Amino acid sequence: MDDEGLIERHRKQFPSWMSTFYERPLVPTRGSGNILTDASGESYLDFYSAVSANILGYDVPEIWEAVREQLRSGIVHLSPFYVSRRRVELAERLAELSGIPDAVVSFTVSGSEAVDLALFLATLYRRSSHVLALRHGFHGTTFGAMAVTGDRRWVGMGLSPFQVGYARGGYDRHHGPSAGLDDAAYVRACAQDLAELIGAGTADRVAALIVEPVQGVAGAAPLAPGLLEAYRPILQREGILLISDEVQTGWGRTGGHLWGYQHHDVVPDLLVFGKGLGGGFPIGGVVARREIMEAMTGMRVSATSGDPLPVAAALATLDHVQAHDLPANAGRLGSLLLDGLRERIFDTAIVADVRGRGLLLAIEFTGPDRDSAGSEIAVRVQEGCRRNGVLVGLGGAEEHCLSLMPPLTLTEAQAREGMEAIASAVREADRGIAADRGGKAE
Questions:
Q1: SS3 of residue 351 by DSSP
Q2: Rounded distance, CA 43 to CA 440, Å?
Q3: How far is it, in rounded angstroms, from Cα 47 to Cα 164?
Q4: 38-42, 169-173, 276-280 — which is least confidently predicted?
Q5: What phi and psi values does residue 401 have, to the nearest 5 degrees?
Q6: CA–CA separation, 442 vs 434, rounded Å?
Q7: Residue 338's closest CA among 404, 382, 421?
Q8: What does the pLDDT look like over 274-305, one tens digit per residue?
Q9: What pLDDT is stored for residue 154 in this prediction?
């Protein structure tokens, strides 16, 4: 296969902002388990799982059988104006698992579309276009989702259907004037900041605060313990809804729980899901209290939302997650990776932090003056990981972090293999950078 020719055709046919990883872009041709194989026959342990979408890895028998069974019925697409048994079953399970009282469900095609729907519902319910989000948050690439994204790489032209104010979140805990505070002091400062933002920084009532329990694109930055608990009474006092964006943190990725919000003693008013539920098929949606969902008085029907194939795949994926207790696996192996990487690379000159929760982790790099050189180092380490047989992503406000989000089906042997390969790539980069500067690395 002519890889170079295909890569050139890709570059010619797609816009420049559809960037690819690696100096020599990857051209995958086969997936099996947690392994991806490219057109040249090289195989890689996948520690990125398509930005956490392939939570069960590749070629999963249960998903294939569920999809084949649906295909045998002859129904690939089904109008939302008809009743689908599997669609009802999936909605029932999600409503129960959400923890939200009197919950109802609306399906979408993607997580970004689900974020748009959640914001639409909240603003209708509250009769306000003012929304709060967290600094450095990421919520998707549709118009409404980008409007509440607090990362300058994704905000487009700055146009927005909302008035948006930004509160402190997970990333701020590690940077700027808050970096020296302990968790309790940081939470107090954040709560005071939120109250002042609502009181002085908003011209109208506020519809909702949207949060990621772990800010994934920002570099796997978990919200500080107690932060949502401190935010909740301030929101309730003003009638402001809490939206938990679980597109990346759902299905057990953060370890120990199905949802990221469950690491905090709160229950959101709306929950947004997507990515991993489909096991590779496109699906998203919103779970919300009935009174909020039914604030929409007009008709809203998306022709392909809740279609039979992704719903069948989603039911099989959810069965697999629960039957194999993958949230517990993510918690156990996430701790192994976090502790092991810290032990192996924290003493290098280029590593500023290793953080995350469950199987949503990041390594943050820094240049000699803590400047943008950290992004160059991250790319260098990413290339090194590929040479060592492991695929990883990039993240962080300056793309100065390595993003690690392997499938939840990761085994302990694979976790240790990936950890050693990543640590080796970090130390190799550390030595190379020290040599470039005429210095020495440990």
A1: strand
A2: 33
A3: 34
A4: 169-173
A5: -125, 150
A6: 9
A7: 404
A8: 999 999 999 999 999 999 999 987 767 777 88
A9: 66
Residue 441: predicted pLDDT: 47
Q: Taking 80 as the threshold, does the pLDDT of residue 158 lie above it?
A: no
At residue 179 the predicted structure's pLDDT band, cuts being 50, 70 and 90, is confident
The SS3 of residue 380 is helix
Structure tokens belonging to residue 92:
């029932």
Q: In 77-180, which ranges are continuous DSSP H helix?
A: 85-98, 111-126, 143-147
Using CA atoms, how far apart are residues 429 and 400, in angstroms rounded to an integer? 14
Per DSSP (E only), the strands in 60-177 are 103-108, 130-134, 163-167
Give tens-digit pLDDT for 100-136: 999 999 999 999 999 999 999 999 999 999 999 999 9
Helix (H) or strand (E) holding 390: strand 390-391
The SS3 call for residue 272 is: strand
Among 256, 252, 260, smallest CA distance to 213 is for 260
Residue 77 CA, chain-centre distance (Å), reads 28
Question: Which residue type occupies 171?
Answer: Y
Task: Indicate the residue type of 165.
Answer: G
Q: What is the largest CA-CA distance in the chain?
A: 70
Q: Which residue has the tokens 């709560």?
A: 191
Backbone angles phi, psi at 21, to 5 degrees: -75, 155
Contacts of 201 (CB under 8 A, 6+ apart): 165
Give the other-Cβ count within 10 Å of 369's Cβ.
7
Share of the chain above pLDDT 70, in %: 95
Main-chain dihedrals φ then ψ at residue 433, nearest 5 degrees: -70, -40
| Residues forming a β-bridge with 197 | none
Query: Structure pTM?
Result: 0.94
| Beta strands across the sheet bearing 390-391 | 28-32, 35-38, 43-46, 390-391
Gyration radius of the chain's alpha carbons: 22
